[in-house]
Amino acid sequence: MTIAEITHEERAELAKALLDALDPLAAAVRARATGLPAERMWGAEPVEVALSVLSAWKLVDAEVKRLTAGAAATAGSYGAGYEQLGAVWGITRQGARKKWPEAVSRPAKRPGPLELFGGEAELVEGSDGWRWTASGADGAAGEADTGHRTREEAAAHAGAFLAAHAG
To answer: Is 150 domain-assigned?
Structure first.
């Protein structure tokens, strides 16, 4: 697998979606920091607004890094090696090992439970496809609403649930 390319149109759509998601976070961060209502954020001094936005981007950056590490760990749990992780990320095998030191350390567990983010999910093939049931690290329980076409698709949905309920 090679590094994914993004078109100009995809980049514009992504930027809009990220900015749309960032606005309420930036307003909430500013409200907590100042004690002022969130709706007053944009009426503040420009430097204060810019710093609130920068602070929100830092939070987003940290969350993206956490989710990226989870994706690397998921790929590693299915047997991807550091060379493959590095190729996708555009770094060397050694760089991938340094970036995600735990991603490939455990053996692939194909038939057993999926253990991520402190929680566990069980994947089962049924008549309508692959289903999952999960228990998050925060104690939340979840399951697939419908069957998924592949085990990997079910694992991705279960992994998203476990990430959201990491505790």
So the answer is: yes
The answer to whether residue 109 is domain-embedded is no
Residue where a domain stops, chosen among 75, 99, 123: 99
Helix 8-34, helix 46-77: angle, nearest 10? 120
2-60 confidence digits (pLDDT tens):
567 889 999 999 999 999 988 888 888 888 888 888 777 777 788 888 888 898 999 99
By the 8 A CB rule, do 150 and 123 touch?
A: no
Spatial separation of the C-alpha atoms in residues 163 and 74, rounded to whole Å: 11
Domain range spanning residue 89? 8-99
100/83 Cα distance (integer angstroms): 12
| Cα 135 to Cα 142: distance, rounded to the nearest angstrom | 7
Q: Are residues 61 and 22 in the same domain?
A: yes
What's the whole-model pTM score? 0.57
The DSSP letter of residue 1 is -
Contact call for residues 123 and 149 (beta carbons, < 8 A): no
